[in-house]
Amino acid sequence: MALILNNIHEAGTAALMKHAFRLFALLAGLALAGQASAQCYADYKAKQDNPLRLQYGIIELPQSACASVQAARDYAKPVISRSGWTLLQIESIFEPSEFQRRSANAGAIHLRQ
């Protein structure tokens, strides 16, 4: 009789673990989907001096920089300065669905990461 009760306990534990694994997989999938859809872009204006050159470009932003123009500016400024440009302003922040239309206006410098 003890052997039968032990088997029932093990079957219950296995079912519980399967349920916990499925729940974990679902939550992990939702978390990853949320991160992927939160990606955004910003278009910006930058300059170089001696001689004066102006640039319009697009930069890919991490999720943390999508919340505001100031957050986008804080992220973009050092990235753009590594190429010798000075960030003048962030024009706007937009979703990936707008990328194709806006990248046509950006010319050769259409995406910085």
Description of the molecule:
It contains three helices and three strands, in the order αββαβα. The chain is α+β, with helices and mostly antiparallel strands and 113 residues long. The protein has two domains: 1-37; 39-106. The chain has a three-stranded antiparallel β-sheet with strand order 2-1-3, with helices on both faces. The chain is globular. The protein starts with a helix and ends in a 7-residue tail after the last helix. 14% of the residues are buried. Keywords: Signal. Residues 1-38 form the signal peptide.
Summarize the topology.
Layout: H1 2-37, E1 40-48, E2 53-61, H2 69-81, E3 86-94, H3 99-106
Antiparallel strand pairs: 1-2, 1-3
Signal peptide: 1-38
Keywords: Signal
